[in-house]
Amino acid sequence: MEQETYHFTVNGPQEGMRLDQFLTASLQDRYSRSEIQKWIREGLVQIDGEPVLERSKKLLENQSIQAVPRTIPENTQEPVELDFQVIFEDKHLAVIHKPPGIAVHPGPGDASITLLHGILHRWPHLKGQGSRPGIVHRLDKPTEGLLLIALDPEVQWKLSRQFQERSVTKEYIAYLLSTPAETEGRLDFPLMRDRVDRRKRTVHSAGRDAVTLYRMTDVYRTRKGRKLCRVEIQLITGRTHQIRAHFAHIGCPVVGDDLYSRSSREFYKFGLLLLAARLGFHHPVTGKEMEFELPEPDRFLDFARKAEFY
């Protein structure tokens, strides 16, 4: 199968950016900067048709950038039968219900089973179509919800562009360990990888722009004096751990978050209470506006019923 290839043109405000920074930003966190630097070292990135091996190369306006992701080892693309629900499917794309507790795709040095293996079992023709066949966007391992799958490379590219252009509607439901100061608001805090705990993202002025909109819908006053809440969230950007890092930053971590809160053990039986509940996009072939929505899973509703005891 033909390998996926990304094409970009440097526009005015991007002039002067390093090549690795430009690609990381243009690919909207689909790949880490360290992974993109490997592409550059291996000659998989070209500027105006010529391979470039210098990751810190400064770019000029109107330059054409082409990047081909590394192909992941064949054994990481072995199909494995997994249990997930297909919400919608045609010959171009599918929308699935990602279960919590499973990564979308393998990470560096990660040999564990991921959702990618299940996707390749469900749609075997995708095997070998690029480094992450079918994957258009990702959800964190503990996050549950709607995930969009492309069933051919051209559709994958077109859907990825919609995410890059921020034309996709992404709405979430979360339960928080505290209530924000305002009933609704905008969290506009740049995020970068934490320099101490590399698993986490942290707010930093040198980070990449990250914008989260929220609206509080319910408040739960508990017998222990807590003031928990339910929020509906819209992502304007789509950074790694964006919702979890933003709400932790304002002192309202997501219930069950074992990375950004200190009380996750207390809520272990519920898991991370973060749901990718609504997804909207334009069908890349038919042009039809597509919208999908999930009801809250039982574990979310169970928590809401029992919240007063926490």
Q: What proportion of the residues is helical, as a percent range?
A: 10-25%
How many H/I helices? 6
User: Could you name the CATH homologous superfamily of the largest domain?
Assistant: Pseudouridine synthase
Kindly give the count of domains.
3
Please tell me the CATH architecture of the largest domain by its name: 2-Layer Sandwich
Provide the descriptors you would attach to this structure in a database record.
single chain, 310 residues, alpha+beta, Structural Genomics Hypothetical 15.5 Kd Protein In mrcA-pckA Intergenic Region, Chain A, Pseudouridine synthase, 6 helices, 27% strand
Quick summary of this structure?
Helices cover 17% and strands 27% of the residues. It contains 6 helices and 15 strands.
Write a structural description.
The chain is α+β, with helices and mostly antiparallel strands and 310 residues long. The chain has three domains: 6-67, Structural Genomics Hypothetical 15.5 Kd Protein In mrcA-pckA Intergenic Region, Chain A, CATH 3.10.290.10; 74-165, Pseudouridine synthase (2-Layer Sandwich); 170-276 and 299-309, Pseudouridine synthase, CATH 3.30.2350.10. Helices cover 17% and strands 27% of the residues. The protein has six helices and 15 strands. The chain has helices at 19-26, 33-41, 115-122, 153-164, 242-249, 298-306; strands spanning 6-9, 45-47, 50-51, 64-67, 85-89, 93-98, 144-150, 169-176, 184-188, 191-193, 201-203, 211-221, 227-235, 274-282, 289-293. Strands 5, 6, 7, 8, 9, 12, 13, 14 and 15 form a nine-stranded mixed β-sheet that branches. A four-stranded antiparallel β-sheet has the order 1-4-2-3, with no helix packed on it. A hairpin with a 7-residue loop joins β10 and β11 (201-203). The model has no long low-confidence stretch (mean pLDDT 91).
